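Working notes for the structural subgroup meeting. M.R. asked for a predicted model of this chain before we commit to crystallization trials. I am recording the input and output together here so anyone reviewing the notebook later can reproduce the run.

Input as submitted:
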Amino acid sequence: MSRPTVRSRVGLGLGFTAVLVFSLFPVFVMLSTAVDARANDGSRSLLPTSLTWDNFRFVLDEGGFATYLRNSLVVALSTVVISGLLALLASVAVSRFRFRFRTSVLVMVLVVQMVPLEALVIPLFIQAKNLGLLNHLFGLVVVYVAFSLPFAIWTLRGFVSAVPRELEEAAYVDGASWPRMFWSVLLPLVAPGLVATSVFSFITAWNEFVFAITFMNDQGSYTVAVGLRQFFTQYGTNWGAVMAGSTLITLPVMIFFVIVQRRLSDGLVAGAVKG
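Returned structure, recorded in token form:
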């Protein structure tokens, strides 16, 4: 195998730098505008001339973003816990047990994942209205769990199938019950896959906008994605508040990603190998 030449290394470095700048430039503009005292000035430069935290104070106090952050956190964490539990049990069922219509269930899960999101807005709105779930955070949790489950079930199914049955049988021989085997043997082995699906569920619930604005009419039930809309008015846009709100929306996702990133990379690599 030939060693890379200087020209190829320089090209690789330039390409890497270009991708990095392209990816981070929007984040830089968001942060610089959020702390710029002249954020709403049309002649402002990329670098803030004077720093201020007034945009964050305005967003949290007068903009009600503390309530929106709490609502989004409740919805996102509930979605992660419920979808993770249901997907894990469903993946164990389709991987370990043989029952009637098993293949049909798997195909239906895959078909549901292919339906465009926009096509389901009106049917789900009517169902939520009939069930009295409009303006309730639980209504959003139900919808987000439904959208997260297909991907989670298909991903976890590969992890569960890759666990040798001999390990489970060895646990039974040692006297373990099914719950003990599930908790002590199966769950630790599929944990990386569970983390990967949890990240997907969290991002789905945290960033979703269409269903949140369709289901929620009460301002006290808004999530952060809907709450950010109030800074866009017919008379103009408060760019300082928009960027401060965007920063507050981004931080929880970044913190969650940093916490689980090691498990996430293990899960993605293992999933790519196991299939």
